[in-house]
Amino acid sequence: MRLRATFLFILLMLSGSLKAQEQSQDLKVGLVLSGGGAKGLAHIGALKVIEESGIRIDYIGGTSMGAIIGGLYASGYSATQLDSIFRAQDFDKLIQDELPRDARTFYEKADAEKYAITLPFDGFKVGVPASFSKGQNVYNLLWQLTQHLGGEVDFTQMPIPFFCMATDVELGTQVMLESGYLPRALTASGALPSLFSPVELDGRVLIDGGVINNYPVDELRAKGMDIIIGIDVQDELRDREQLASALDVLVQINNFRTIQAMDTKIPKTDIYINPAIDDFTVVSFDQGNAIVQSGIDAALEQLDAMKELAAKQQNPPLEYKVNQPSETLKINRVDISGNEKYTRSYVLGKLRLKSPSETSFASFSDGVKNLMATGNFQAIDYDFNKTPDDSTQVSITLKESKSRMLLRLGAHYDNLYKSAALVNMTFKRVLTNNDIVSLDLIAGDNIRYNFDYYVDKGYYWSIGLRSYLNEFETNVPQELFLNDVIDPGPLNKLALEYFEWTNQVYVQTLIGNAFAFGVGVEHKRFNQFSDTFGLTPGESRTYFDETDYGSLLGFLKYDTRDDVYFPTKGFFFEGQINVYLTASGRNDRFKEFSIAKARLGGAKRFGDFTVFVGTEGGFKIGDDSTRTFDFFLGGYGFRQTGNLMPFIGLEPLSFRGDTYLKADLRLDYEIFAKNHLFGVVNIANIGNNLFTNNQWIDGIDYSGYGLGYGFETFAGPLQLIYSYSPEVAESNWYVSLGFWF
Fold it and tell me: Which residues of the chain have pLDDT under 50?
């Protein structure tokens, strides 16, 4: 009896000991996040529910979009913070590497606003870009979001230990990234082939980890995790009705391996969350709200199981807190590698960076955008590391673009030049490492060209050579040209042939990071004639001018607009003066004179409305016998050149004079993305010697009103405007298609 009691006592003691041991065990929970492009935004919704359940996440493994969201979450951001961050992004600009306009130099701004298509053209052979995007904007964003980590880190030492998967494109093997610079690792894991350029990291060329392993559950279990929660946002195989294009078939083939692998990976997942995302694609970022909600809905189905799991954990979840570093950077050293063709001073000049110096994260980020805007670099990697004296060491790794030749295409239509097709050839590093040669050939109803040679020296004096031919034929009021010559009788209009050939050599520098100031010399040949009739017996052509002019040139520019066609913010100023000293040709009455002109304006957005206000003017100083350089008023939709000044409400070249003043007011309502309804009011005075006889303030000579619709496309804006001018009692329709050139 005593033996039996002793045995029962021992059993009770052992049972209590085992129960206490079970209660003291703290379950380790791992979280695996799959790739899926925009569908990966569902991870954010699921993470919100996971936080609500009270589960402590001990390790995160992710691939592609799962790596990006998982890496940021592991670095200390909460799901709510991630939701706010991603809602604030313009994914079109992010993915397309679209740079803010103010990141470009004045030359680059004009150069980037003409072409719809750009292709490699090395060896005069048309190539295909290696990818749709270089991924630089994605890298810049991840850099900004991970500065609190302070440079290269061991990912296992982050607030939540983390790893991500990439693919070695040369070997076809998977690569687990567990240390280094987090933005670089996340960019490599998400480098979707054909969409983003491969990432060079530690001697390997890496692409999207989803190519080999899009759901790294085995790797996560190997980290000692007791329980695995998985969020799967991968595509399902589509049926024949859904395979509507060659792209759909290619995506289906690419998904074979990863989808089939899930047959064995799902059973290894203890809590499997599979959001309903079949209605979305990998680029459905514009439906981000619905995708996040799908993650919430799917995770709520597992909420009871997650709460039960959370109750078995003894230590609390991570308290989410990201300590942003100081805005001021004390830079004591800048290391630059990878620059073979471009000097250290060129790179630092574009970055607007010196060492030692003080700057800010925002200024450094703007400098990176300036450097990327040159188009001379395939990738720009950078990281910051603190030194013992609490200053910062910046390491910049460059990958120079191998392409030295580009083929660029564009098309345009307006009421003055009519239809035009543009072919551009651009050559880089022709005579020096900092130069660029660009040739536009424009064919259509009128033949034109633009040639530019530019040596960019940043804050030092840059050198430019420009040549362009501008010609068109249009009907103009006869009094603009004939009243000073003959009595035209019943003739109302004549057909004007306008030919302007300009050549400039100039030097240019920057003033205060904002203004471009330049001086130079200019040759201009004007040829203006009409075949309507001849003044000389036996001739059918009348010449109004056929002369070569030589002048000194000076200009000052300022431009912070975010867009030249539909600006929502920023200001601009353009001022130019030409001092004409010589003439050779039909103009035998020439005496020295000067032409000065300026434009300025600004835009401000209020909700969905943008208000633009502008003013401009020009005048002649000196001899008034040469009328060729008069200002012509009228028309819309063409690139402003020479002294042809657009004016809503009038036909092109409706009025002329050696002095003009003009003001504009434009109200733009963006009814939905890239679609605009706008109204325009402009007023002007134009005539001869307006400042001398005080006629510039005696009233308004001409006014015009317009109502239009505009649509932004990859090939430029499409605009249709109805206008009316009460002074001439006429209405006009303007059609402008494509970038202006």
Answer: 1, 3, 5-24
Phi-psi region of 316 (alpha: psi -120 to 50; beta: other; left: phi over 0): beta
Question: What is the CA angle 46-197-149, rounded to 5?
Answer: 55
Residue 244 amino acid letter: A
CA atoms within 13 A on the CB side of 657: 21
pLDDT of residue 245: 67
Would you state the pLDDT for residue 4?
A: 53
User: Residue 13: its pLDDT value, please?
Assistant: 46
Q: How many helices (H) and strands (E) does the chain have?
A: 14, 34
Tell me if 584 sits within 8 A of 590, measured CB to CB: no
Cross-strand bridge partners of residue 725:
730
Please give the structure tokens belonging to residue 436. 């660029």
CA of residue 374 relative to chain centroid, distance: 13
* SS3 label, residue 697: helix
Q: What share of the chain is helix, strand, coil (3-state, %, to 5)?
A: 25, 40, 35
For the chain, how far is it from start to end, CA to CA, in angstroms?
108
Strand partners, 230: 32, 272
Structure tokens at 353: 């960076």
pLDDT at 567: 95
Per DSSP, the residues of 558-611 read EE--S-SSS-SEEEEEEEEEEEEEEEEES-TT---EEEEEEEEEEEEEETTEEE
CA gap 254, 474 in Å, rounded: 56
Query: Is residue 70 classed as helix, strand or coil in its secondary structure?
Result: helix
- Alpha-carbon distance of 9 to 657, in angstroms, equals 115
344-351 and 361-373 helices cross at what angle (nearest 10)? Answer: 120
The model's pTM is 0.77
Question: What is the residue type of 328?
Answer: T
What is the CB-side half-sphere exposure of residue 671 using CA atoms within 13 A? Answer: 9
Cα dihedral sign for 324, 325, 329, 333?
Answer: negative
* Pair of tokens at residue 204: 């390997």
- pLDDT, tens digit, 9 for 90 and up, residues 525-540: 999 999 887 767 667 7
**Cis amide leading into 316 (omega within 30):** no
